[in-house]
Amino acid sequence: MSDSYKAARHSKIAGGPERPRPIGLRGIGCLVVTVCIGAISSPHATGLAQSAPEHAALPLDRPTLDDAQRLFYNARYEAAAALALALRASDVHDLASDELRSSALLFQLKALLEGRADKEGALKNCATCPDLIAEFLADIRHGQNLARTTLQSTPGDEAALFFLGKLDLNYVWLQLGPLRRKTGWDEYWEARRSLDAVLAHNPRHVRARVARAWIDYIVDTKMPWGTRWLLGGGNRKHALTEVREAAQMESDFFSHAEAEFALWDMAVRERDMTHAITVARRLAHDFADNRELATFLESREASLRR
Fold first, then answer.
1. H helix runs in 55-128, sequence order
2. Is 156 helix (H, G, I), strand (E, B) or coil?
């Protein structure tokens, strides 16, 4: 592990500061993964109320996309989206900012709508949701167009392939998660092909491995056999192995964080609470302001004491 990575991993997080029901069939709805990278009922996307003055937590001294990522991984989704937008106003409007901002907006929407008995009514009565959805779709369209244009001139561009896959998946998660619309087939298959192309060229691409593992895991664990076949198949055991290996690979600070959040989420799904607590503690060390992590640990550790 490089010295620069270790230093970043153990540095103090400034200021305050992860998965989408997919594709055309009712059963595919379960593909809503709240992480990552990459979740359905994930502890990382529980929709807990975000702490109040989020915008006051925005870094003030020459903020960067790293600052927005810190906010995102500390579950400060509104602040992360706001900072990504502010960076765009400074002519930083690239695939990475589109993907991060669309993810933050998606988590905001999920937080507003999760846990409501009347899901359709919750969306209709949500005063802020229409603007969030419009902003989300604008970011997705911009990023998709930019990635596809890049790939027309450079078909093997790794960054364009990866971000196209991630943006496509975010679109699917919105449509078949919060919006409950049976759509997204084209985006699902484009995402799957794009991520497979990245991994064929670079098997150590941590974020692509995590995103692709989530598809395998959810398709295998949530879909009936016929639907799994229509979606190209899934493989739960392979997905678990992929995420464990991705979390152990040397990578940049935030790619590692995405893999760790996926590892935590899958451990919870597997009811492996001992492992889930271990991973959550590691994450809480790096993201001390993440109230979702803190609440999970408080509840699980209290349960163990009983």
1. 65-73, 77-89, 95-113, 119-124
2. coil
Q: Alpha-carbon distance 284 to 303, whole Å?
A: 18
- The answer to whether 65 and 59 are in contact (CB under 8 A) is no
Query: For every residue of 256-301, which 3-state class applies, written as one string?
Result: HHHHHHHHHHHHHHCCCHHHHHHHHHHHHHHCCCCHHHHHHHHHHH
Pairwise CA distance, residues 218 & 241, whole Å: 14
Task: Report the interhelical angle of 273-286 vs 291-305 (nearest 10°).
Answer: 140
Token output for 6: 């270790």
Q: Which pTM value belongs to this model? A: 0.78
CA 29 to mean position of chain CA atoms: 16
Q: For residue range 87-110, what is the model confidence (pLDDT) as tens digits?
A: 877 655 589 999 999 999 999 998
For residue 108, what are its two tokens?
Answer: 């905001």
User: Which of these, 3, 6, 37, lies nearest to 20 by C-alpha position?
Assistant: 37
pLDDT more than 70, % of the chain:
77
Q: What span, in angstroms and rounded, lies between the C-alpha atoms of 235 and 214?
A: 10
CA distance 174 to 61: 33
Write the CA distances from 239 to 162, 200, 301, integer angstroms. Answer: 18, 16, 27
* Residues 165-210: tens digit of each pLDDT: 999 999 988 887 788 887 888 999 999 999 999 999 999 999 999 9
249-253: which pairs have CB atoms within 8 A and are 24 or more residues apart? Answer: 249/204, 249/206, 250/1, 250/2, 250/5, 251/5, 251/206, 252/5, 252/8, 253/5, 253/8, 253/9
- Going by C-alpha positions, the residue among 269, 168, 257, 156 that lies closest to residue 206 is 257
